[in-house]
Amino acid sequence: MDEVLLLTRAFSFAARKHAHQRRKGANAEPYVNHLAEVAHMLAVAVQGRDANLVAAGLLHDVLEDTETTRDELAAAFNDDIAALVGEVTDDKSLPDQERKRLQVERAPHKTDRAKMLKLADKTSNLRDLAASPPASWSTKRRLAYVRWGRDVAAGLRGVHPWLEGQFDAAAARAEQVLAEK
Ligand code: ZN
After folding, report:
1. 29 is known as an active-site residue
2. What is the count of structural domains for the chain?
């Protein structure tokens, strides 16, 4: 598929699937803002050379947070994109704490491109936490979230220094904002 078609189709697909979702933060931004941020970060990271990875950035939460199936993704896009999104999708049948633990444990075993995608996702989440934290979260819970993000990111290193720098800056900023509370 032509790359412009692929990316606009992915954007349209993701926007439709997440149409009724908002971010958890106090600003309740449209969910698609997060997807656009992750995809753009990846596009910069690969300097426009991996359209499938950028498309996977747009689609990375559809398996976890919408009714979409992996077969549907493979049919609408391709196996590479479906596999990338599959790699960054938690098993929702597991309890929260177990999912969190598995993210830390499995991060180092992911493919390089899935590591990049996950790092961009974690970076966006920490930027959001600093800019618009969920109102119901205590400072302690927010700090624990940053610490967990750092634990996951530790297993994603060694692939893309620029993305690691983006993550480090987002984590440091989140901690700084939380320390000012
Ligand atoms: Zn995400």
Report:
1. no
2. 1
Say whether 158 sits in a helix, a strand or coil: coil
Q: What is the structure's pLDDT at 28?
A: 87
Structure confidence by residue, pLDDT tens digits, 154-174:
999 999 999 999 999 999 999
**pLDDT one-digit tens code per residue, 28-37:** 899 999 999 9
Nearest to 163 by CA among 134, 105, 123: 123
Ligand 1 centroid – CA 34 distance (Å) = 7
Rounded distance, CA 133 to CA 131, Å?
Answer: 6
Q: How far is the CA of 140 from the centre of ligand 1 (A)?
A: 22
Q: Which domain holds residue 142?
A: 3-179
Q: How far is the CA of 3 from the centre of ligand 1 (A)?
A: 22
pTM score, two decimals?
0.96
Q: Is 98 a catalytic residue?
A: no
What is the CATH classification number for the domain harbouring 152? 1.10.3210.10
3-state SS class at 7: helix
- Catalytic pick from 29, 65, 72, 168? 65
Please tell me the distance between residue 5's alpha carbon and the centre of ligand 1 in angstroms. Answer: 23
